[in-house]
Amino acid sequence: MPLLILRIFRTMKAIIPVAGMGMRLRPHTYTQPKPLIPVAGKPILGFIIDRLRAAGFEEFVFVIGYLGEKIEEYVSRAYPDIKADFVSQHTREGLGQAIYLTRKVVQPNEEIFIALGDTIFEADLESVMASPYSSLGVKKVDDPRNFGVAEIGDDGFLTRVVEKPEIPKSNMALVGLYKIKESAALYDALGTHLERGLQTQGEYHLTDGIMQLIRDGVKFTAFKVQNWYDCGRKEILLETNAILLKKDTHHSPGAERFKNTIIVPPVAIADSARIEHSIVGPNVTIGENTTVIYSIVEGSIIGNFTKLERVVLDNSVIGSDTIIKGMRHSLNIGDNTEIDLS
């Protein structure tokens, strides 16, 4: 008799903070929120939402701020079937403040899962969701001083979390994934910090609220993240693009689609792109309605509605609505730009 497997998923909301300004990715983030920058043919935020949906999430809360209307438009267009709430963070005073702002759209003690909106991750979320404990995603790093750090006891439970310690006692970095079962207690702790102005390093950190729960006896475990791509800098963005393109989730189009063109896989090229007399790849993403003529493009990300003519590009990130003509360069150019290098 075949086994009937029923998937039971408790009510849980996914909270995705996307209010940051993306300072390290300027000039691109002057006109485009960092979570919407394309990687391997899809916005960063799309990878995050798709992974959470695969784990069973149907309700999402987005904390928006800078260029928030573009986040709303993307989510509404690309994911019309999910239940989405949008909460505005008008002043950016830290992740703790961002999460506290979501309290009105979360039911009392409803479980929440927080995933930062600029980090693509690979983890066994299904096992995390099945655990009876709150849990934080961690990954071993060489220098944890620029991260939140988790200290784990011999019994497997967290004994301490601290934000960017000068002298870390652990090399297990928090990677921006937080499953919280005791959401009411977390909101209470964060609210107390905001009321009393209890900041760390000039911000209200989520780690401080979690640390208060640990002091109060709430048990937290840690789950290891297999892969974690913090797409906050051009170099990491391009590296992530190459890694994801090499996975089997994308299929490079054949050169027969394009006139007198050589395609070197892996690439992700939008169906509406026009390419002629060019060599494209490997590790290239090309957006919608972009034209590439008499050019060579390798290891780069090219936005939408962009035109490249007689250029050689490598290790470049080119925004949308951009025109580039000329010679070989390594460029980092934002949206709505016209450059003539001929």
Topology summary:
Blueprint: E1 12-18, E2 38-39, E3 42-43, H1 44-54, E4 59-64, H2 68-78, E5 83-88, H3 95-100, E6 111-115, E7 119-122, H4 125-130, E8 134-140, E9 148-152, E10 158-163, E11 172-180, H5 183-196, H6 206-215, E12 220-224, E13 227-230, H7 234-246, E14 262-263, E15 267-269, E16 274-276, E17 279-280, E18 284-286, E19 291-293, E20 296-298, E21 301-302, E22 307-309, E23 312-314, E24 317-318, E25 323-325, E26 332-333, E27 338-340
Helix pairs in contact: 5-6
Question: How does this structure look, described?
Answer:
The chain has 342 residues and is α/β, with parallel strands linked by helices. It has two domains: 229 residues, Spore Coat Polysaccharide Biosynthesis Protein SpsA, Chain A (Alpha-Beta Complex), CATH 3.90.550; 89 residues, UDP N-Acetylglucosamine Acyltransferase, domain 1 (3 Solenoid), CATH 2.160.10.10. Helix content is 21%, strand content 31%. It contains seven helices and 27 strands. A seven-stranded mixed sheet has the order 5-4-1-6-11-8-12. A five-stranded parallel sheet has the order 15-18-21-24-26. It has a five-stranded parallel sheet with strand order 16-19-22-25-27, with no helix packed on it. α5 crosses α6. The longest helix is centred in the middle third of the chain and has 14 residues. The termini are far apart. The N terminus is likely disordered.
